[in-house]
Hints:
Elements: H1 5-16, E1 20-25, H2 28-31, H3 45-48, H4 51-54, H5 57-62, H6 64-79, H7 85-94, E2 99-104, H8 110-114, E3 119-121, E4 124-131, E5 137-138, E6 157-161, H9 170-182, E7 185-189, H10 201-207, E8 211-216, E9 228-231, H11 234-247
Parallel strand pairs: 1-2, 1-7, 2-3, 7-8, 8-9
Antiparallel strand pairs: 4-5, 4-6
Helix pairs in contact: 1-11, 7-11
The site of ligand BJW has 35 residues, from helix 2 and strand 8.
Amino acid sequence: MQCTQEQLDEGARILKRSRSLAVSTGAGISKESGIPTFRDAQTGLWANYNPQELATPQGFSGNPKLVWEWYVERRRMISDVSPNPGHYALVDLEKEFDEFTLITQNIDNLHRKAGSKNIVELHGNILRFKCFDREHPIEQLPDDDRIPPRCHCGSMIRPDVVWFGEILPADAVMKAGRALETCETLLVVGTSGVVYPAAAFPAQAKACGARVIEVNTEISAITPLVDVYLQGPAGEVLPKLVETFRAL
Ligand code: BJW
């Protein structure tokens, strides 16, 4: 199913009336770049891997080699792919608004690669590292045979991403909160809307008076709440939304 031109017109009119836009993206926007989402029943990462083993601090403590190697593999896959038309459409939208914040749950760096500027990375970035015990930032991985490599303090090094049960980076939470309070429109793209705190963003923005537009191939947990639902792949719907917006 794909959204109609009337629905795109309605979304574009809401955007046209707004001076400030916040965008919240999830794994769905990178699907067309070739990166699997998490919760797709067939191809999602959590269909094939156990999140408790691979995306929790307890999982890393229990089997650091397994977790480290899983992230090495994902980093290799991510470094081979490019942004898609959905990422580039958001770069175009950023130029149209006085205030624009792109809040992403994705760790794949593709918004930055595409050229988006004001990005808030809620769940970290797979290309960065920190130490497990004391969170020392790691600028460069040591030339170390150990897996995982070790920090100067002796602790294991881990990817700088947010696992289940971990607190999100304070500056990211603060910037996201400010954008949600002040935006006139929130555009939500490609997230199932089940992982908190991002799952609460649409309700938060609405409570502050914003309109909410969603782009997703499927109905999500937030669809019942949105003002305009644009069904379809982000790589097709977002460029059409920008084109419709510019034609108004
Ligand atoms: C397309 C498409 C196309 C496909 N175009 N669309 C309140 C209530 C209940 C629980 C909690 C709560 N507050 C906190 C929690 C606990 C927990 C949580 O939310 N659990 C829920 C699962 C119930 N949250 C946390 O632990 C967070 N920490 C926190 O809140 O700290 C304080 C606290 C802790 C404990 C208790 C209370 C407070 C941290 C969450 C960290 C999430 N980490 C991961 C892994 C990151 C690293 C890595 O990648 O390895 O982040 S899990 C994974 O899910 C990843 C994603 O960012 C995140 C969200 O997934 P996303 O992006 O929505 O992907 P999918 O696959 O779910 O959906 C894809 C969507 O795209 C689908 O809708 C498709 O239809 C769509 N789609 N193709 C457009 N082409």
